[in-house]
Structures are given as C-alpha cells and as structure tokens.
Design a protein that fits this description.
Blueprint lengths: L19 H8 L3 H14 L1 H4 L1 H17 L8 H7 L1 H8 L7 H24 L2 H22 L1 E6 L6 E7 L4 H24 L3 H20 L3 H19 L5 H20 L1 H16 L8 H14 L16 H10 L12 H34 L3 H16 L12 H12 L14
Antiparallel strand pairs: 1-2
Length: 432
C-alpha cells in the first residue's frame, strides 16, 4: 500500500520561509532614519556630550556600511568629487603654521564630510528628512526645557542684552540651528500633508512654532529672514510639481538669471539694504564687531594669499592675532569662534587656491542640484535647494561648511552630494 506524500513534504506544496539574510532588510527598514537622527543629534548636543560626540561620529560611517554594505558603491563618485575638499585641508599640513593641529582637525573634517556624503547618496532620502526632523525636534525641545540665556555685549560699547542660546555655545549658533530647524519642520509639514500623514504634519507645525520662538528670542533678524525666505522658496518649488517640465525649466532659468544679476550688481544695492535692515532691527553698523574681525583677516590674507595659514591653523591659543580677536569679542573660552564670513574663513586658512577649489566644487554641484530638483522636485531635494538659499543669505555674516563635527558642515555636504545621487530605476522583474 503506497503512502501519499503530504503537501508539507512535497516541494510544490511547501512554502519556503525567508532565510535570516533575506529577512534582514525588513528588520532594518527604518535604520537609515534612525542613523541620521543619531549622528545629527550627536552634533547638535555637542555642548552637552563633549567627547561623546566625537566617539559617535568616528564610529558612524563604519557602522552604517556594516549594516548596509550594498550602499557602499553609491558613495564612490561623491567621495571622489567632494573628497577633494577635506583632502586639500589635510594636504595643507605641509605648509601649516601648526601641522599637528591641521592634521587633527583635518581628520575630523574628513569624517564630517563622509557622514554628509552617506546622508546625501546612500541613505533613503525620505528617511533622511525624517531623521533630520527628529534630531532638530530633540534640539528644539531640549533648548526650550533646559536651555539658557547669556548676556551679549555690543562690541565697543557698554550696552548688553539678554539673548537666548538654548543648549548651544552662543546666540549665533542657537539662531542658526533654530533657523535650520524651521526649514526642516516646514519641509516635513509639507511632506506629511502630501503623504496624508497628518499626525506627522501636526508635530512638524508644533516644532516649527518652537523654532520660530527660539530664533526671535536669540535676537537674530538675519537667521529669521533667511529661514522665512528659504521656506517660501521651498513652498514655491513644491507647488511647481504641478507644472510641466517646460514651465519648471523656464521658472528655473528666470530665477537663476535674476539671482546672478543681483549678485553681480550687489555693490549698488547690498549696503543700502543691509543698512536698512540693521537700523530697523536696532543693530550697529559694524555687525556686532564683525568689521573689525574682517579687517584683521584681510591683513592675514595679504600676508599668505596663495595657500593661507593651513586648515584650522589660526584659532589656536597662543596665536597673538587670534588672542587679539578673542579679547576684542570677549570670548573667554577661546573655542568655537570663526570669522563670521565663509569666504574669509577659507581664504585665511587655505588661501586663494583653496578658495577656488571650494568655490568650483560647491558651485558646480549646487547648479547640478538645482537642475536635478527642477526635473524631479522631491521632498528632500526641494529642502536641499532651500537650504542652499538659506546659506547663500547667511554666508556673508557666518562661516559654513568649514568646521569639523558640525551639523551644518555635514548637512551642506549631504545636499551637495545629493546632486550626484544616482536616479532610481525600476528593474525588470526576474522570471521565477
């Protein structure tokens, strides 16, 4: 008498369970967003974590590619292009006034750039945006609950004012982080509404309100205006999704031409507009002492025009020029300071050769990013262009993309590398 095989015993009737390796991607579906939130939170909370931030960031890139080894090839092109900038910073150790310091901070700068590249080209774009939102939401809530105020003096005057600094080292850092938080919250609110994730959109609006309050309390008119203008630009790009490709291209060409002409003719309007803004905001014409700092920087640029002093070779205890600026600005800790101008910061440390390299790479990728977003106005892409707009307004009075272990540096390299992100292509279904 023959026995009939049970369905479970036959190959046709059995249902194969996925192996551990096959099921692994599903278990880690939210890993990208968690990773972005983790590294950005570590940078935002650097004042509280201190050396803990360095430990997190040094381990961040290896951990990501251990978990996502298939994403490693995607970073190749971006590392080859954007890696030129930290490579030149490290190379400056050969002529640096303090080679050991240049190598130390140049290595930190390289790690920060790599983190940005991972966010821009390897991480899922929507998860990257949500991860940024959680990090900046944690910063906003912590700043509101445990953040503090500081007495800020007007340089060259006995007047002082109470300004909100949150959990940052200065009111400028607090205003910049909160302004960026406004932009991220606006992007997530629009994303949540578009995706019908209304609770996420509501949370983003709440955080947006907190960030606006913090920027106002930090007494930074520039950060508030830059964030508002950038948010309007992002909303316009999101609204442009309903337009045809030809209409978006025409809009892009019009905006680009207008901005180019405005920049070329800035000598005719910039001083008048800036003076009006400063007067209405009750600010002094020296931009709180920045003009004195820029005069000192100009002298150092003239002394080392080609290659500069070397990466991070100026802000060192014992350097008489740095000591003079710290004393003038009342910086007791002698750390976390800069020239409050991105171009001047690069010129002092890396000279005209370094500045040309930075400007060429950043300018080319910014244009490529704008073209990409014009073709495909996705959520992260429109936010990226809006942040470029935010930085473009702020770079004359703040230093961006040059500081190691900085959330701003990592995010700048993330959005620039996003321009090199490979397009998602649908693969043909394989036969069973």
């Amino acid at each position: 008498m023959t026995r009939t095989a049970r369905p479970a015993d036959s190959h046709q009737g059995s249902i194969a369970r996925p192996t551990y390796l096959e099921a692994r991607p599903h278990r880690l579906v939210y890993f990208d967003g968690i990773w972005v939130a983790f590294v950005m939170t570590a940078m935002l909370f650097e004042q509280l974590l201190r050396s803990g931030t360095a430990l997190v960031l040094v381990a961040a890139v290896p951990v990501y590619f251990i978990v996502r080894p298939d994403r490693l090839p995607k970073a190749g092109l971006a590392v080859g292009v954007l890696g030129l900038l930290p490579a030149f910073a490290l190379l400056s150790a050969f002529w640096s006034a303090v080679p050991q310091t240049t190598l130390y901070y140049g290595t930190e700068y390289l790690i920060t750039v790599l983190i940005g590249i991972v966010i821009g080209v390897a991480v899922n774009a929507n998860q990257a945006l949500i991860g940024l939102f959680f990090a900046f939401s944690a910063h906003a809530i912590a700043s509101m609950l445990i953040g503090g105020y500081a007495l800020v003096g007007r340089v060259g005057s006995s007047e002082v004012e109470l300004a909100f600094i949150g959990i940052m080292a200065s009111k400028n850092q607090a205003a910049d982080a909160s302004g960026l938080g406004m932009l991220i919250a606006s992007a997530v609110a629009a994303f949540g509404i578009a995706q019908r994730r209304y609770f996420l959109g509501l949370c983003a609006l709440v955080v947006l309100g907190i960030d606006i309050w913090m920027v106002v309390r930090a007494d930074s008119t520039g950060a508030l205006l830059a964030a508002v203008f950038a948010a309007f630009a992002m909303i316009a790009m999101q609204a442009g999704r309903v337009l045809t490709m030809q209409a978006r291209t025409l809009l892009f060409v019009t905006i680009t031409t207008t901005l180019t002409l405005a920049f070329a003719l800035r000598t005719f309007w910039f001083d008048a507009v800036m003076g009006s803004i400063l007067e209405s905001a009750g600010k002094d014409a020296t931009l709180t002492g920045r003009t004195f700092i820029w005069d000192q920087a100009s002298r150092m640029i003239d002394a080392n025009p080609a290659f500069g002093l070397g990466y991070n070779a100026f802000w060192n205890v014992g350097n008489p020029d740095a000591e003079l600026i710290w004393k003038f600005a009342g910086i007791a800790e002698k750390r976390g300071f800069n020239f409050h101008n991105t171009a001047i910061e690069i010129l002092v440390h890396l000279g005209y050769v370094g500045f040309t390299l930075f400007a060429a790479v950043a300018g080319a990728l910014a244009m490529l990013l704008a073209i990409r977003v014009t073709r495909r106005p996705e959520a992260f892409g429109t936010f990226a262009v809006a942040y470029l707009f935010f930085m473009g307004i702020r770079t004359p009075v703040e230093s961006y993309g040059f500081n190691p272990f900085s959330y701003a540096t990592a995010l700048i390299f993330a959005i620039l590398s996003y321009a090199l992100r490979s397009e998602h292509r649908r693969q043909a279904a394989k036969p069973r």
